[in-house]
């Protein structure tokens, strides 16, 4: 059964996804008016667009500060995009806020992407996992496999882009950013972030 595609449902899809009116109408038409399928279609197209734009320079953007409830935890984050015009769009501010909240929700996050993890950090985690008592009687080959798996899991927990997105656990933070790229049509990158905890010093 085909649902009638009128201005009301097109606007509803636009409000839900942030995509342009023409793209929303096209997605609904291609999916015979099925609202949920149209949403998935727009998400997939957004991911494809993001992959194509990933090499573009991002020299504009904004710095956003998020203060968590209780005023004892703060996140400062730099989000980069291609143009100053797009940097002023609400989608960028929303993304910055949501990603900052993601960082605030997980104290383990240290790196933006897995490419940011240097050999010293990897070796530190490997030594920690290799020293655990439950591995004492394991054969070397089995021990190496267990340690390798634990290291991979531990490092993944420290990477921002690999985390399940707090507002939609069906996607990662990386996928959320790519969806936003698909909506606004420009490359977006998380450049850096700093976590501030009340009473914490650099030595801590």
Q: Which ranges are low-confidence, i.e. pLDDT below 50, for 5 or more consecutive residues?
A: none
Overall average residue pLDDT: 85
Strand content: 15-25%
According to DSSP, the number of beta strands is 5
So how many helices?
A: 8
- Report Rg: 21 Å
**What is the helix/strand order?**
HHHEEHHHHEEHE
Protein name: Multifunctional fusion protein
Function: Associates with the EF-Tu.GDP complex and induces the exchange of GDP to GTP. It remains bound to the aminoacyl-tRNA.EF-Tu.GTP complex up to the GTP hydrolysis stage on the ribosome.
Family: Belongs to the EF-Ts family.
Subcellular location: Mitochondrion; Plastid, Chloroplast
Write the layout of secondary structure elements.
Elements: H1 7-17, H2 21-30, H3 35-53, E1 60-67, E2 73-81, H4 84-87, H5 90-105, H6 119-130, H7 140-156, E3 164-165, E4 168-172, H8 173-184, E5 189-197
Antiparallel strand pairs: 1-2, 2-5, 3-4
Helix pairs in contact: 1-2, 1-3, 2-3, 3-8, 5-8, 6-7
């Amino acid at each position: 059964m085909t649902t009638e595609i009128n201005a009301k449902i097109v606007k509803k899809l636009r409000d839900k996804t942030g995509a342009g009116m023409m793209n929303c109408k096209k997605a609904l038409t291609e999916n015979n008016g099925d609202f949920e399928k149209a949403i998935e279609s727009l998400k997939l197209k957004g991911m494809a667009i993001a992959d194509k734009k990933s090499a573009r320079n991002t020299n504009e953007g904004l710095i956003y500060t998020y203060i968590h409830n209780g005023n004892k935890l703060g996140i400062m984050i730099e989000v980069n995009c291609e143009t100053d015009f797009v940097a002023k769009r609400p989608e960028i501010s929303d993304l910055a806020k949501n990603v900052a909240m993601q960082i605030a929700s997980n104290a383990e996050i240290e790196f933006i992407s897995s490419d940011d993890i240097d050999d010293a950090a990897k070796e530190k985690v490997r030594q920690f996992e290799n020293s655990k008592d439950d591995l004492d009687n394991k054969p070397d080959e089995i021990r190496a496999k267990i340690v390798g798996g634990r290291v991979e899991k531990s490092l993944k927990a420290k990477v921002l882009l690999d985390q399940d997105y707090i507002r939609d656990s069906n996607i990662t933070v990386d996928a959320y950013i790519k969806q936003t790229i698909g909506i606004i049509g420009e490359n977006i990158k998380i450049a850096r972030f700093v976590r501030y905890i009340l009473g914490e010093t650099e030595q801590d």
